[in-house]
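Re: that backbone. Tokens:
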């Protein structure tokens, strides 16, 4: 990597340390950081599943920040490969010379988080070491955010499928359970989405359920691979 690349990373420290880097404890699901809807970096009410925030040419441009171990890098590429193998979406390493819009995978900030959709300029997927516990799942979750997809349990029709127990959720995280007006692309609600919270997400008492499926016995938020719904949504968004 060139020295210019390191400049970008240092720049990142300044920006993020001042605004977004709130240390989060790594529990069972470290993707639940202290950001908008848990792990989303876009500062204000953002729009997910918006076609205007797609990556052009069905291609996400990326850089890998410094400091990742060989195994961590392998997991990042595993995540990209799974998306690439199931959809028409491609990943291309940014050129230092001409790419100005790209995602940089970095382990500089705490937590696991991402900007949703293409923001323009440099944007981040933050992956601290704990984000690799359990393989490439969290990396893939954050990468799908960067491709423009929001959380499954925030979609506008979610009340038909899940019950939210707000009184059991840590007050500072209740906003992460609000519905958004995201485009579902006509894909049915998918409990097995990799973009779905677990049943105990942000619980005050960790043994309590904060989000429950209306269909008894359904497992949510424990997928380790792209679900059929995730795949279909990405394919429809990117017109595969
Ligand atoms: Zn997320």
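Recovered sequence:
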């Amino acid at each position: 990597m060139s020295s210019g690349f390191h400049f970008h990373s240092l720049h990142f420290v300044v920006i993020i340390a001042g605004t977004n880097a709130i240390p989060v404890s790594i529990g069972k699901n470290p993707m639940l950081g202290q950001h908008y809807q848990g792990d989303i970096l876009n500062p204000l009410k953002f729009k997910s599943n918006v076609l205007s925030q797609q990556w052009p040419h069905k291609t996400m441009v990326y850089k890998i920040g410094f400091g990742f171990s060989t195994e961590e890098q392998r997991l990042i590429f595993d995540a990209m490969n799974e998306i690439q193998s199931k959809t028409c979406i491609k990943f291309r390493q940014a050129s230092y010379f001409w790419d100005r819009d790209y995602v940089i995978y970095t382990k500089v900030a705490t937590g696991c988080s991402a900007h949703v959709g293409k923001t323009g300029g440099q944007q981040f997927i933050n992956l601290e070491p704990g984000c690799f516990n359990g393989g490439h799942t969290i990396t893939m979750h954050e990468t799908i955010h960067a491709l423009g997809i929001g959380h499954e349990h925030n979609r506008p029709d979610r009340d038909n499928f899940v019950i939210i127990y707000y009184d059991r959720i840590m007050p500072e995280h209740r906003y992460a359970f609000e519905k958004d007006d995201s485009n579902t692309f006509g894909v049915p609600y998918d409990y097995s989405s990799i973009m779905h919270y677990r049943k105990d997400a942000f619980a005050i008492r960790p043994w309590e359920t904060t989000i429950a499926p209306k269909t008894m016995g359904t497992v949510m938020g424990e997928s380790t691979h792209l679900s059929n719904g995730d795949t279909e949504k990405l394919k429809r968004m990117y017109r595969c």
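The first helix runs from residue 3 to 19. The pocket of zinc ion is lined by residues 31, 38-40, 141, 145, 151 (CB under 6 Å).
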